[in-house]
């Protein structure tokens, strides 16, 4: 069973390693290059024209890796896995339309705000509604109407509130990754770490699943998750695909992921958290995305209330660039912060399980 996890990761890595340079050549040939803000760090002006929409590479690689791993091992796909992949692809499509309009139509703001939000809402609502369908033989659906941290807790919030909560998570994570994607390799490297954490969580939940309660030493400590192993397969495919993309996306980047990639990665993270019943834990595991998003909220709030800025520039990574840090220094130090968030998050996950046990 673990073979499919290894296969999906390796195939995802291989496909983006060889596929991304082909995409770079195609995008460069068509002249689909990145616009750079004039008010940002001057060093970024040299990046103008670098091919973007690179998210296409790891979205396709992840999907192909998932289905190939199933084909090779003979295991069936699951609704949980398909829903997370569908959410990733749907959000990626919205981002692709945004990038396409920016680059091909030469409209610097891309999709109009209402159209972009409408696209995200349609994809998010479709995921949330479908995630409460398809019960298995234990009456487990891919998602639960309870809030979750390590596992589900509290009262059921009902399907309507669940859809609203799921939408909030999807939009928050998508925009969090989008804001983080401002320096070469920053968002990609941070995402690799979180997807690695979800691969581990999926394997652990599978080993301690309530479906195996009869062989567990303490059935009371089991995880009520519909398809934990398949979520690990999806997370592994994403981790491998992002790793391969990082080879080309790290400084100096030969390609950017664009909104195509950042919205897709944010959607995948939210989908994995919702389906693995670790919704609130995602705020710890993806701590860097939360930190960078909060820097924008603080900057905008402070300027509107007092007319003063807290940071030289938001998101946070550009503040440190304007203070004189090199781009590579900012990226590596932020990766260290993200690594610490993943370690703390996994520690909390294990401690929570041990406490129940």
From TrEMBL:
Mg(2+) binds at residues 178, 259. Its EC number is 2.7.8.13. GO terms for biological process: cell division; cell wall organization; peptidoglycan biosynthetic process; regulation of cell shape. Pathway: Cell wall biogenesis; peptidoglycan biosynthesis. One of its GO terms (cellular component) is plasma membrane. It is found in: Cell membrane; Membrane. Keywords: Cell cycle, Cell division, Cell membrane, Cell shape, Cell wall biogenesis/degradation, Magnesium, Membrane, Metal-binding, Peptidoglycan synthesis, Transferase, Transmembrane, Transmembrane helix. The keyword Cell wall biogenesis/degradation applies. InterPro entries: Glycosyl_transferase_4, PNAcMuramoyl-5peptid_Trfase, PNAcMuramoyl-5peptid_Trfase_CS. Its cofactor is Mg(2+). GO terms for molecular function: metal ion binding; phospho-N-acetylmuramoyl-pentapeptide-transferase activity. It catalyses: UDP-N-acetyl-alpha-D-muramoyl-L-alanyl-gamma-D-glutamyl-meso-2,6-diaminopimeloyl-D-alanyl-D-alanine + di-trans,octa-cis-undecaprenyl phosphate = di-trans,octa-cis-undecaprenyl diphospho-N-acetyl-alpha-D-muramoyl-L-alanyl-D-glutamyl-meso-2,6-diaminopimeloyl-D-alanyl-D-alanine + UMP. Catalyzes the initial step of the lipid cycle reactions in the biosynthesis of the cell wall peptidoglycan: transfers peptidoglycan precursor phospho-MurNAc-pentapeptide from UDP-MurNAc-pentapeptide onto the lipid carrier undecaprenyl phosphate, yielding undecaprenyl-pyrophosphoryl-MurNAc-pentapeptide, known as lipid I. This is Phospho-N-acetylmuramoyl-pentapeptide-transferase. It comes from Streptomyces albidoflavus. The lineage of its organism: Bacteria, Bacillati, Actinomycetota, Actinomycetes, Kitasatosporales.
